[in-house]
Amino acid sequence: MKELSSSDRSAPAVVAIARRVKPGYEADFEAAVRGATLAASTFPGYLGSEVLYPNNRRGEWQMILRFDTLVHLQEWENSPICQGWIARADALTETPRVSRVNGLEAWFALPEMPNVAPPPKWKTAIVSAIGIYPMISVMPILLKPITNGLPAWLATLVSIAIMMPLMTWVVMPQITRLFKRWLYPPMAKHSAHQSSNSNPN
């Protein structure tokens, strides 16, 4: 297994878990999901979560958890609290499907598409540039009343501290949805769905 670099371990991380609930246990599973997300929210680095409900009783429940670093995600996943919630969910569902997104790929993770492979790097580079360009062009001007008079290194630090959260939680989610059809072509999504549901027999 490839060892993660320090930059990978300190980059944002997303885990998406898809489960099919055993008939008659839907209410119990929903309560377990609420308890798990509440427990995760008490851990360092927790950024938020989404739960996507199935379209029908035999559909998949999608649970997405976001942490600021892979290290914090792993701390949650390795904790006895998380393992307890996993054991409870396992008793109520079939074998889950788990997918993970690390680094800048987390900018392109959409809750409604948790099991689709990340876009090609050249596409993420272009879309990232589209998001970053207005930020580095406009934000320094808007922040000038705050950073004016500060040492250059401190002014840069203040700018980064404000711009990165905006990029992560405001700008990139909107731009990713704007370019969703280009980043995730329908044919690629269809192929990924067929591959994940193909029967080897």
Using DSSP, what is the number of strands? 4
What percentage of amino acids are in beta strands? 5-15%
Give the low-confidence spans.
188-201
The percent of residues in helical segments reads 40-55%
CATH topological fold name of the largest domain: Alpha-Beta Plaits
Question: If you average the pLDDT, what whole number results?
Answer: 77
Shape: elongated
- Radius of gyration computed on alpha carbons: 19 Å
CATH class of the largest domain: Alpha Beta
Task: Give the N-terminus to C-terminus distance in angstroms.
Answer: 29 Å
Task: Please tag this protein with its features.
201 residues, alpha+beta, Alpha-Beta Plaits, 2 domains, 4-stranded antiparallel β-sheet, 54% helix, 14% strand, elongated
Write the layout of secondary structure elements.
Blueprint: H1 6-9, E1 13-20, H2 26-40, E2 46-52, E3 60-67, H3 70-77, H4 80-92, E4 97-102, H5 121-142, H6 144-147, H7 152-178, H8 180-183, H9 186-197
Antiparallel strand pairs: 1-3, 1-4, 2-3
